[in-house]
Structures are given as C-alpha cells and as structure tokens.
Predict the 3D structure of the following.
Amino acid sequence: MIAILDYDAGNIKSVEKAVEALGSEAVVTRDLDTILKTDKVILPGVGAFGDAMEKLHRYGLVDVIKQVIEDGKPFLGICLGLQLLFDESEESPGVKGLGILPGKIVRFPDSIGMKIPQIGWNDLSFPHKGRLFEGLKDDPYVYFVHSYYLKADDEQIVTATTEYGVTVHASVEKGNVFACQFHPEKSSETGLKILKNFLSL
C-alpha cells in the first residue's frame, strides 16, 4: 500500500492514477495511523511553498513525514514535494521547510533570458545515477512545471540535473528519501519507469 499525502495541494489525483496504473494500491490520506501502516509514502504537490508548509503543520503531517523517514520507509517527493524537503525557499521568505535535506529553493533569475515558469519537456543528465533511474537510457526527457529550483548543499545527493539557463538539481536521493522536481506521473513511459523503480524498492 502506497500513501499519497493529502494536504489540499494540486496534482494528487494524477499521481494516484499513475501508481494504480502500475499495479500498486494507493490511498490518498492525511490520517496519521494509515500513513504509518503503509509501505511507501509519496508527497506530491503543486502550489506555493509557504501555503504548503502551513497546511502540513495544520494537518499534523510534519511529524509523521519525519517519522516515516526515520523508520526507513521509501519516501518520494514530487515537484513542490521535493522543495518542501529542504530548508527554505525564496518563494516564501521566513518560512522553514521540513529540513530533511540541506539546501534551498531559489527563483530562476530573469537574466537567463528564458520563459519563467519553465513549462515543458527537458532532458536529464545523471551526475550520480540513482535507483529511480535504473534501466533508463541516457538523456531521457521528463516534464517540468516550476518557477523555483533546488540548489542542494550536498551535490553528492543530486542524482539528476537539467539545464534551463542554469543547472537545476532535478532529482535527489539520500538513503530512503527520493525526490524529483519534474513530474514523473506526467512524463510518459519514462516517468512511469521512474515511478515503477520507486514502487519496486
């Protein structure tokens, strides 16, 4: 059973459908006991960093996320779910993230001359190819929608990058914690393979 955390963020339904399409049972929930009984946990989401952290606190999900990770269960953050795992975001100054991984979320600079937000397909490079990307060919294309991007403090945890005027830390892995800035559930066969790799852990 896979828990998909429900904190009133967008994009949760598409993640649920993708997980079920891969033959796994999913439950969209914010019930703490249910979450702790599942095998794996996914934190999806689109929206604003500060608003999302407020809702995670309101629903008591901050402590349960930390407990799940401490227990060693595979945990996957997607899009905003990746950003929330880090310390802070320029989108919401003064708001503390979950602080599970060290780093900060910064806005694409206007000086890059690219359209912001980044919306669309871009290819990945693998500085340290993590378990999510096993079986994928080099330079696969995945789907992004974001105005802010990760700068991880520890580049050893960065398993995928993409170029969009700057180098974006597009995926990370540390122990049982995985996260993708892109949307695997919207990334066609490549994305489903990434999700399948997570579900197979």
